[in-house]
Amino acid sequence: xxxxxxxxxxxxxxYAIKGAWLLLKHEPSIQVQFALAIIMCCLxxxxxxxxxxxxxxxxxxxxxxxxxxxxxxxxxxxxxxxPDFHSKIGHIxxxxxxxxxxxxxxxxxxxxxxxxPYIF
Length: 120
Ligand SMILES: Nc1ncnc2c1ncn2[C@@H]1O[C@H](COP(=O)(O)OP(=O)(O)OP(=O)(O)O)[C@@H](O)[C@H]1O
What we know:
Layout: H1 5-26, H2 28-47, H3 51-81, H4 87-119
Helix pairs in contact: 1-2, 2-3, 3-4
The structure holds adenosine-5'-triphosphate.
The site of adenosine-5'-triphosphate has 9 residues, from helix 4.
């Protein structure tokens, strides 16, 4: 069972859940995103947003937390393979941070489109 196809998939899922828990426990940027996600969900219930709006909101939250998690992994990998200052490492980290920025802008636009009509 342990080395079977199903056993490997189940173990892989366990590592992934462990990784998500480590991100939530140790990464301040993920903790901030998680807190914002809870606030956005409270707002969603408060304003009674539609099912479609919930879908976009959940997608935006998932997008931004995924990007932030991958950025954290890239930063950790970069620091591990090259702990010293190097312009290439700086470039890699900047590009990874840029991806998070794009996800954040996307989420802000989605949030604006959803909540603007409820607030104004
Ligand atoms: N080893 C390095 N070599 C060159 N530039 C670096 C290096 N480490 C960091 N930088 C520069 O500093 C910026 C911030 O890097 P850092 O690793 O501190 O990320 P951060 O966004 O502050 O993440 P966190 O707050 O999660 O540590 C990078 O985007 C890069 O421009």
